[in-house]
Design goal:
alpha+beta, binds FE2/S2 (inorganic) cluster
């Protein structure tokens, strides 16, 4: 089992010491503009989402772009937020797990964000739940490009690390949502 250890300090903490010059930024999160100060614009987006915007559904796992706990949709593209500077997101439309329920059907799959969330509950996919924000957004992105994904499509697209091993439930939930047979 992989253990996630927080080794990367939150750059926003520097703001509390008063040793950094503050910069005002605006980002669009789940359809709303958020404006605030950050210690510097090299701060990874993840910390601004969690500590300033309050979108704490986006999680910190590895901090090195491996686990996908921190993924969001940026202009519709699945994007890791733990290392990339917030300055790179100023002109993009960002969707976090808090905005998934309002997302329209993912391409021709017909699966909305709300349907995805309800299937996750019905299928009891989440266990501890820590990875599931990123997992759900990854599945939404997959269904947009592959409305009826095969096992191989799922294996290739869903690289999120789940320490609880929910992969079979994720696969079954996707298959049920897209009207495909579940392996016995
Ligand atoms: S926290 Fe693991 S990929 Fe970002
Ligand atoms: S890490 Fe617990 S549900 Fe994935």
């Amino acid at each position: 089992m992989q253990t996630f250890v927080s080794v990367r300090p939150n750059p926003l903490d520097r703001a509390e010491t008063g040793s950094e010059r503050m910069t005002s930024i605006t980002i669009n999160v789940n359809g709303r503009n958020w404006t605030g100060d950050v210690a510097d614009t090299s701060t990874p987006l993840l910390w601004v989402l969690r500590d300033r915007v309050g979108a704490t559904g986006t999680k910190y796992g590895c901090g090195i772009e491996v686990c996908s706990a921190c993924v969001i949709l940026a202009d519709g593209t699945l994007t890791k937020t733990c290392t990339e500077n917030v300055a790179n997101f100023i002109d993009k439309k960002l969707v976090t797990i808090e905005g998934l329920a309002d997302m329209p059907p993912a391409g021709s799959s017909g699966v909305t964000g709300k349907m995805l969330q309800e299937m996750w509950v019905e299928s009891q996919v989440p266990q501890c739940g820590y990875c599931q924000s990123g997992m759900l957004l990854a599945v939404y992105a997959l269904l947009r490009s592959k409305p009826r994904p095969s096992d191989a499509d799922i294996d290739q697209a869903i690289s999120n690390i789940c320490a609880c091993g929910t992969y079979p439930r994720v696969r079954d939930a996707i298959k049920t949502l897209t009207g495909q047979a579940i392996a016995a």
